[in-house]
Amino acid sequence: MTDVLILGGGPAGLAAAIALRQKDIECLVVEALEPAIDKGCAEGLMPDALASLRKLGLDITEEHGHRFRGIRFNNFAHRVHADFPNGIGIGVRRTKLHGLIAGRAREVGVPVLWNSRAKLLDSRSALINGRKISFRYLVGADGQASGIRKWAGLGEVKRESVRFGFRRHYNIAPWSEYVEVHWGPPGQVYLTPVAADSVCVVFITRNPKLAQGDFLAAFPSVAAKLQGIPTMTQLRAGISANRKLRRVANRSVALIGDASGSPDAITGEGLAVSFRQAVSLANAIEHGDLELYARAHQKIGRLPHAMSWLLLSMDRWPQMQGRAIKTLSSHPDYFQQLLSVHVGAESLHRFAMRQGLRIGWGFLGASLY
Question: What are phi and psi of 31, to 5 degrees?
């Protein structure tokens, strides 16, 4: 018997377990893979993600990866950057981050069954490696293709768009203090410093066939930086989904992380959202009411999904992207304020009321080049 059965031992599932143990709630995590679990993501943790991890008792510092001070947007003609208003970011290899979160879970007494299989019997029991386990609540932390989501009747999608991501690490010292986002017609290239001798390169596109070739050919300035540089990892593929579900919980089942929907990876906020969800889920289970979690989940996702919509509009229409980056490069204070909104340091509503009209006029008046 356990209070909470968590299916999925990635960062979201482990974070939920840690938050539950902080409230002395018993839980069991079941994961089909062995640690450390990898994923084809950009590996940058922004200040709000680091703050959320500290609430779970895990302090990620520069010794775990490489610092960056903000975000830089580039296209073939313009560039603009902004610093975080609330600290620094840390680039951390996904496998190392998973190991750190798993270590924190061990510290607080979370039992984890790695390389294990679960078969749900009903809403209160399951077979785990052939042994029957009873539980009060079930948490689905089993990722984008969640089986729990379908099993629990929570699979109805309110809004969805899917893109494709491809990641590789290059053995080169970071040349920038920023996470660089290079925009081009086929998508974006993200460059994240993750160690003194390593840069994480992620390409995200709507066209998976393009990414099977040399996608850097569409980004000559990036290709020039990486020409002749040895790679450290194989190309790893993944899905970047901007997905909102109609429901993320019922009376006894809750979804968390990518299983519960997600903002597109373009926001860089996927992990931060999961960590905040974990704290809210533990609070709801403590009070015996998953509706509390459902409401908190909606609130947590509001800003990331709004930013996804804005940035994906730039991805969908190249002319809009060109005008937007030119306008922002001409008025870097706008970009600074947008980044402050993005990391939760400023209200989106206040920003829109104060600067929306100015940015709109600047956008309309900007030529494409």
Answer: -135, 135
Rounded to an integer, the average pLDDT of 92-116 is: 97
Domain enclosing residue 342, as ranges: 317-365
The total number of structural domains in the chain stands at: 2
CB atoms within 10 A of CB 237: 12
Angle subtended at Cα 144 by Cα 267 and Cα 60, rounded to the nearest 5 degrees: 50
Residues 266 and 355 in one domain: no
| pTM as predicted | 0.92
pLDDT digits (tens, 9 = 90+) for 225-266: 999 999 999 989 888 989 999 999 999 999 999 999 999 888
Q: Which residues contact 192 (CB under 8 A, 6 or more apart)?
A: 42, 43, 44, 68, 91, 179, 199, 200, 202
Assess whether 253 and 351 both reside in one domain.
Answer: no
100 and 33 together in one domain: yes
* Rounded Cα distance, 241 and 352, in Å: 26
Task: Say yes or no: 21 and 108 in one domain.
Answer: yes
